[in-house]
Structure formats: structure tokens, C-alpha cells
Amino acid sequence: MSDAQVIVVGAGPAGSSTAWHLARLGVDVLVLDRAHFPRDKPCAEYLSPEASRVLASMDALADCEAAGAAQLAGMTVRSPNGSLIRGDFAAAHGFRGFRDRGLALPRRVLDAILLDRARAAGARVAEGVRVTDVLLGAHGAAVGVRTLDDEGGTHERRAPLVVGADGLRSVIARRLGLVRRQRLPRRMAMVAHYRGVADVGAYGEMHVERDGYAGLADVGGGMTNIAVVAPAARLRRAGKTPEAFFESWLSARAHLGARLVHAERVGAVRATGPFAHRTRRGWASGAALVGDAADFFDPFTGEGIYAALRGGELLASYAAAAVGASGRAQADAALTAYDGERRRIFGGKWRVERLVGFAVAMPWLMNRAAAALGRRKDLADLFVGVAGDFVPPREVLSLRYLLRLVATI
Fold first, then answer.
1. Do 339 and 282 touch, CB atoms closer than 8 A?
2. Is residue 15 part of a domain?
């Protein structure tokens, strides 16, 4: 006997988006999360202009804006030698997002809004429930999950389809053998909120240094999100707590430390990572992956929340087809189609992310690129538009773009 048609593991943006879209299709959905909401989550908390389209479709955009979400006009990037790039979301290149601005909102607020929308659509939600394993049936297909609740009780919950929306260290992806071994850069992020940071404006900021980078953004209510991303090996060698490493890293950079002199940290420094989580594919028989559980490379381009929301929107129709299939082969065909479409939609952005990660790891290259983009705002606007998810990645992956960039260098 099934507990639902679909069990969604994880109630962050990916899980809530998946649950909302499935419930609207008439699918019986059960969402499980180990946390109790609202809860804090280490994240840059940036939502690209195109993320607002998915929020609007879920009737969540007005709630996010009413909660005080900050409005971001674009992004600035500072290279290790101090060269500056500034790109605007509303620019002369002719591409337009759903909105001309991005949003930034604490995850404590955003995730609670999205989960409420999933509930309103008809999804059932169980908080304080940790998924510990995947139940396997005939021929190794997923048929449910094993859980542990806050009181220590263990349960088996069954469904024709399990969706792993459980983040970087996805239990679902690992138990089903979908995680790829790789040698990509392993970075850790440390994130905190501050009040009173000097000179925070309407642009998200990225500050690239020789040993990592920092991101700053207004997230509304007078608070600034500050994230430091550094190689995991450097953090281990430093022998410091994440909090001590975070504070010392910022204070060692004069252009950042000076802006924090009169600032006050609100809450703890939270760490997450290592990043560079990749999977062999986004499905297994009886299961699908979405959001960070499916793929995540590096937070520099701010892909996470949009990819989670868009991924849930994308998965829903394929998941509904899988649970309504007449047999395992037909269900697997629906999930195979989902994975192909996921790669088609996100593949270009993944390539851009990897190129950016390569540049960030090579200071001399980052300095040259920043100097060139600082002189050519039209090229900078295109790049920021790709980061905003409304300019097609092919615009910055094209030979024409690269030749124009090289000519500027």
C-alpha cells in the first residue's frame, strides 16, 4: 500500500516547487524534511530575474515582495587586482527577463513561503522527518524511503515515485548510486547576515581574491548577506572554525574589512559544501533528482534557487506521467525524457559556470577578463543577463562574443 503517489524528499525551493506543480496536476504528494520551518539555510539568497516568473506562477511573488525582498538591478564583480565589472539586468542587448530586477530574501522567509504554497496546492508535508535510506523493490527500482522522526521512530513510506530534492549531500542520489566521482575544485561556503554594512546598494557584489571569493547582497530589512567561498583544503589547513576563518578572511581584505567596521553580525556563520556535486543522470528507476541533488557546481553565478524552482516546474509533468504509466518501462521512459530535457535546458548554463569557475581559479585570467569587461559594458551586460537566466548562454559561449572580448584585452 502506498503512502502517496510521489514522495518528495526535501522541502526547500526544489522540493516545494516540485510539490506545488505536481499537486496542481492532481498528483497526491507527500513532502518530507528533517527540519521544522521556518529555518535558516546557508545560501547567497539571490533570485535571478527569471526566478520571479516561477514565483509568480506559484502565486508566491507577491508574498516575497510583501516580506521585504530586496530588489537588485544587476551585479558588480571585482577582480583580484581591483578591476571592476558592472552589468545591468535591464540593458540595451534586447533581452528581457520576467522582471528587470532580481530579488534577494533570507531563506528562512523564502522557504516558508514556498512550502505554504505547496500546502495550499494540496501537498501534504511532514516536518522533523529524516530520510535515512531508499527502499528498493523488484529489479532495484525505488519504491519508497525509510525515515527517522524526531522521537526516534523509524518508518517505511512507500510511493511509485521518490523525488530527491535533498540538496548537495542527497541521500537519494547516494543510495541509488547516481553521484559521480570527480576531481573538480572542492570549495566551502561560509554565510552570515550583517546589519550596518557600509555602501550596500542595488547591485549584488562578487569580490574575487587569489584564495577564494566573497559575495554581498542586500536581502531586505536592513540586512546584508555575506558569503565567503574558499577551497576546502585551505579551510582545513587553517585549523580554524568556519566562523573564525570567515571573519579573518574578510578582515584581511581592506576593501571589505573597512565596510564592516560599524556592522553587526546577526546570527551564526553557517557553512555548506563542498560543492562540485554532479550525478551520472537525474533519475533511476522509481526515482528522480531535482535542484542541487541533481547537479551543483559553484555558487558564483547564483544558479541555485532558480535551478531549483525551474527544475521542479520542469519535472512535474514527467513525474506525473511516470506515476500514471502502465508499467515500469513506460515510467522509466518518462524519467529518461525528463533527464534529457533537464540537460537541454540547463546545459548551456552549466558550461558557463565551469568557464567562470576556471577563471576564478586563475587570478591572472580573472584580472584580464575583468579589465576587458570593465571597458565593454555591452559584453558585461550580456554576461550578467546569462547569470540572470534570461539571456541564452549561447550569447556568451559564441565565437563572436569571445572574439569581441579578446579584442578588448
1. yes
2. yes
